[in-house]
Write a structure and sequence with these properties.
By secondary structure, the chain is mostly helical. It has a single domain, classed as Rossmann fold (3-Layer(aba) Sandwich), CATH 3.40.50.300. Helices cover about 40% and strands about 5% of the residues. The chain is built from eleven helices and two strands. Strands 1-2 form a two-stranded parallel ribbon. It comes from Owenia fusiformis.
């Protein structure tokens, strides 16, 4: 939280991205066998104060320190329909994996099979949920954060043992709104190397309704009913 002070420059310089190397973020071909291990770079960060990293990886690919409960994890989840919709538009025009002829129907089909970048939303959520009592894990829902951002800031601060004054909580909440971040595109400069579409698009709840057919929505509902029975999380879709 940087003691309430705003971060300057690219956000990935402050909160490193575990999922890919610095070389790929700087434009290298992700399918070439080269690049530094992101964890090695993270390990060079100042160890005198708590460090933060971000990742889309599943629990099974986490470092052992995570699995041994030595690291606090904040799991941010977004409802599967909006997440699928958002990821489709993010990757749709990317030169990395698919082309613009790739349809939303194809994306939904592949997503439910886990054959899209970062795999199945359902399996990812189930896997983290199954380990919730084994590690220090705080589950935050994107929709709840949109509705009460100050409450989310306080909850995260308490989880990481940081004391914040009401003024700092309010200031942080103002700076991390979706609209505020869209006004600072330089924060996501490195993402422009990977995606031609805007990294921050809409960020609202329920945009999936503007693009999904009834059949597509029902297909996801059916998958959730069949595969998410053991996950006690109620998602908001509008």
């Amino acid at each position: 939280m940087n003691n309430g002070a705003p971060l300057e420059g690219d956000i990935l310089d402050h909160i490193p991205y575990v999922d890919t190397s610095r070389e790929v973020l700087n434009g290298a071909d992700p399918f070439e066998e080269h690049g530094t291990n992101p964890l090695t770079e993270i390990d060079k960060k100042d160890k005198s104060k708590p460090r933060m990293v971000c990742s889309h990886l599943p629990y099974r690919l986490m470092p052992n320190d995570v699995k041994q409960g030595k690291i606090k994890v904040i799991l941010q989840l977004r409802n599967i329909k909006d997440a699928t919709n958002s990821n489709y538009f993010l990757w749709k025009d990317s030169d990395m994996l698919i082309d613009s002829s790739y349809t939303l129907d194809e994306w939904i089909h592949e997503q439910l099979k886990g054959e899209v970048p970062f795999g199945s939303w359902i399996e990812h959520t189930k896997e983290w949920w199954s380990h919730r009592d084994e590690i220090p894990l705080l589950i935050m829902q994107y929709e709840d954060m949109l509705e009460d951002l100050e409450g989310a800031v306080r909850k995260i601060a308490k989880f990481v043992d940081v004391t914040l004054t009401p003024d700092i909580v309010s200031d942080i909440a103002k700076r991390v709104t979706f609209s505020a971040m869209k006004k600072k595109p330089d924060m996501f400069d490195q993402m422009k190397q990977l995606f031609t579409t805007p990294y921050l698009r809409k960020g609202v709840i329920g945009d999936w309704k503007n693009n999904f057919t009834v059949a597509q929505s029902e297909k996801i509902d059916k998958a959730l009913q069949e595969r998410m029975k053991d996950v006690d999380i109620k998602f908001k879709y509008e």
